[in-house]
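Severity: low
Component: inverse-folding endpoint
Summary: output formatting inconsistent between runs
Steps to reproduce: submit the following structure tokens with default settings.
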């Protein structure tokens, strides 16, 4: 049982490495939008493995960033919303900066961090209080001073009172605002946030906690512990587990109608990050030919035709036997969590490889979780141009290559054969690198988003039942039922309940026949249909 605080409430302690989150939280990454709303951006920067992501998770109050002992886990910029003293803050987590490293990934991490510098109203540099100062620390401080932003130094891993002298050495960096903190346990984080607020310009309006979309307040969880700073017990914004409802992610009433969450999924190195950058017209995600470049889920908002889309670039999903590093295992877990929190999944397939068993497994995740699906065949330009895959093909790939058709219709026919259970999903052929064909994705997203929430009235369903010839369904006699009436119970995805004369499990061929008839009559393009049977007397 969790301990109680001085007010008799349960302590909001949560293990920083807890993986029980069932629904990820997303936050606006639009700098223009946050600036207009008067929400300042705070950038968290530092060398690799000093605790930046742990501090980020602590402030935003959720497991948004992957945390581990391996250096260099965070690569792309991650955004999260927080509240302190009735002020909204946008927090940006950046990858570990090594300014003089010219390798591709470190250079791209540094480029992403520079973008965060330009957006920030204040910068928090995190250092490891248990390690000695090194030349890269002085180089990073020199670089941060050139930005002209207010600079704060967070000396991390000061977990106990006995370690209060650890920050003394870091005065050599010449930063005036130094704060000993423990990002893992929460010590000193409130003092750091107080100091940041003091240098921010005041805003005439305060946040209404009851407003739609507002995150839970950090203040409500941290303030009861202000008088207990000598106690190293952890604290955070909220007990995340208590915020998670047991409702399935398919409940349409839980989703904001104005925002459509679109998860970009697929196995590593199929072009997911390139597609995100193309759809958002930005360099939001790091793109490289190295499989597994993306680890944390990267999201970006796009507004089009009055509708808001939140694109979420997930890490490449691998087989369990292929994930050895802890960061890879966590990235796969988080990718599936973000998929379960999305409305629509863009399943990206490498056209030069064809559909693999792993592609079918990933598609099965999306289908079984009730996500609407659009199949995106990427790198189609390499197929029609006859160019070979630059990587060395495996034996299975060479076999697929010999069978792979060159024209689009034949390719789509083979794809439909490999993914029979996604017969409802539209297919689009694109080249994310050149942008060719990507203009077809937004109209499809708008159509699928509308179809996902379509509702058919009971009277329409009853008229539909009268027109269907159920004798055409090849069902064993012992499993045949008589449909008395039918109704749509929910949307996103659409769920239909049959009221029949017998309480038996519907035969799969009967369900497939009925689903095909429903699609022919009412559409529901791109979304799975769930059918449940209920006896009238039950």
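Observed output (run 2 of 3):
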């Amino acid at each position: 049982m969790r301990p109680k605080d001085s007010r008799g409430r349960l302590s909001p302690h949560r293990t920083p490495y807890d993986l029980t989150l069932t629904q990820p939280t997303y936050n606006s990454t639009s700098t223009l939008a946050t600036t207009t709303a008067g929400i300042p951006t705070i950038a968290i920067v530092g060398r690799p493995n000093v605790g930046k992501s742990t501090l980020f998770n602590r402030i935003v109050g959720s497991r948004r960033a992957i945390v581990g002992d391996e250096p260099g886990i965070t690569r792309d910029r991650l955004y999260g919303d927080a509240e302190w003293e009735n002020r909204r803050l946008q927090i940006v987590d950046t990858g570990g900066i090594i300014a003089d490293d010219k390798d591709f990934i470190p250079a791209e991490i540094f480029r992403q961090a520079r973008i965060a510098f330009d957006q920030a109203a204040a910068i928090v540099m995190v250092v490891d209080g248990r390690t000695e100062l090194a030349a890269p620390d002085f180089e990073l401080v020199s670089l941060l001073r050139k930005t002209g932003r207010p600079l704060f130094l967070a000396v991390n891993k000061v977990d106990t009172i006995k370690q209060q002298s650890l920050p003394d050495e870091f005065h050599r960096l010449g930063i005036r605002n130094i704060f000993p903190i423990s990002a893992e346990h929460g010590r000193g984080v409130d003092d750091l946030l107080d100091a940041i607020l003091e240098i921010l310009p005041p805003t005439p309006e305060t946040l209404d906690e009851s407003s739609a979309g507002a995150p839970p307040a950090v203040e409500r969880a941290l303030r009861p512990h202000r008088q207990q700073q000598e106690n190293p017990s952890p604290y955070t914004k909220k007990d995340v587990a208590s915020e998670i409802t047991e409702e399935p992610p398919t409940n349409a009433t839980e989703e904001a109608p104005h925002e459509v969450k679109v998860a970009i999924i697929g196995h590593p190195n199929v072009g997911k990050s390139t597609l995100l950058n193309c759809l958002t017209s930005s360099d939001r995600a790091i793109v490289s030919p190295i499989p597994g470049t993306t680890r944390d889920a990267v999201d970006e908002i796009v507004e089009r035709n009055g509708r808001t889309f939140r694109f979420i670039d997930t890490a490449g999903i691998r087989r369990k036997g292929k994930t050895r590093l802890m960061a890879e295992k966590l990235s796969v877990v988080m990718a599936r969590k973000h998929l379960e929190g999305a409305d629509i999944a863009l399943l990206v397939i490498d056209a030069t490889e064809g559909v693999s068993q792993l592609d079918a497994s990933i598609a099965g995740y999306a289908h079984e979780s009730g996500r609407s699906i659009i199949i995106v065949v990427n790198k189609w330009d390499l197929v029609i141009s006859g160019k070979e895959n630059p990587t060395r093909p495996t034996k299975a790939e060479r076999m697929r290559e010999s069978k792979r058709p060159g024209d689009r219709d034949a390719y789509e026919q083979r794809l439909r054969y490999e993914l029979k259970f996604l017969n409802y999903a539209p297919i689009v052929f694109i080249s994310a690198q050149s942008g060719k064909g990507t203009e077809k994705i937004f109209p499809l997203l708008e159509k699928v988003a509308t179809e996902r929430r379509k509702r058919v009235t009971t009277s329409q369903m009853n008229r539909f039942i009268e027109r269907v010839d159920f004798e055409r369904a090849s069902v064993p006699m012992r499993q045949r039922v008589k449909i008395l009436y039918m109704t749509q119970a929910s949307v996103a995805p659409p769920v239909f309940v049959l009221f029949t004369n017998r309480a038996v499990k519907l035969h799969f061929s009967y369900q497939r026949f009925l689903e095909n008839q429903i699609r022919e009559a009412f559409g529901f393009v791109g979304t799975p249909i769930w059918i449940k049977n209920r006896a009238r007397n039950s």
